[in-house]
Amino acid sequence: MPLLRLLSTVPVVIKPSSKEIRSNTLNERSLETAIRQVHLDGLVVVEDVVPHEHIDILNKKMIADARQLQARGEDGPFNYNLGNIQQVAPPVAEYFYPDFGPRPKWTFCSANTAMPPVSNTAPPQRQPVHTDADFAHPAHPFALVVNVPLVCMTPRNGSTEIWLGTHNTAESPHRRASTASEPPVINKGSIVMCDLRLWHAGMLNWTDEVRVMLACIHFASWYRNPMQLEFCEDIKPILEAMDRKGMLELQTPVRWVSVDYALNTYLNRAFGNAYNFDQTP
């Protein structure tokens, strides 16, 4: 059995019941499975938890933004190559839905976007195999990345290649043939919870459509990450109302900005290694 698990390249998928979906809460068995797989594999998928109507509205806006960023050429916020963009979702109430949630600290909100090739002479490219925890970090879990694909992700449109179980190693897994991986199919409406330390690679998008995947990092409450979110002030009442009802379940250090400032600057945010996932001494 341990050998079979080590050779597995397919993440475990939890399919919540209608009762779990209505209550926005996993039952005890589902929660046990999620925790077990995050510890064993460094990743688990939970299907059918994000309403498609919310995804579709946000996806339409973020595709338009991605095309605008791609048009900047070498000056765009590319991760490793011109086929992979790091972009920020519009941080205003129009596109903010309280669908995502003891009280982890949410300090990073961005997206990974696999772009179609711009021409026949510029084929799509993949990222090198890497971990986002490329700094001195605790040997035990301290951060989860919550990914939300805005469309169904497949090997055809750039589903991320992952190496299950590599969150506990400092060695790049691509050097070992026994850990070969393949990009999984992740259905629309799913969330993917991934240990920040897991080795992965953004893949090629062979389609004509932009593939956007939100990426929110939730740090343990004891982990002293100094980053803050930057949201428009019209989101503040939404978070405050959720907190009063006991629905927030998150620490959200936020720098509040005006609507005009948010809309005029969010496409010019820093990207890549400009973000600090480390903690203060």
TrEMBL record:
<keyword id="KW-0223">Dioxygenase</keyword>
<dbReference type="InterPro" id="IPR008775">
    <property type="entry name" value="Phytyl_CoA_dOase-like"/>
</dbReference>
<dbReference type="GO" id="GO:0051213">
    <property type="term" value="F:dioxygenase activity"/>
</dbReference>
<dbReference type="InterPro" id="IPR051961">
    <property type="entry name" value="Fungal_Metabolite_Diox"/>
</dbReference>
<keyword id="KW-0560">Oxidoreductase</keyword>
<dbReference type="Pfam" id="PF05721">
    <property type="entry name" value="PhyH"/>
</dbReference>
<protein>
    <submittedName>
        <fullName>Phytanoyl-dioxygenase family protein</fullName>
    </submittedName>
</protein>
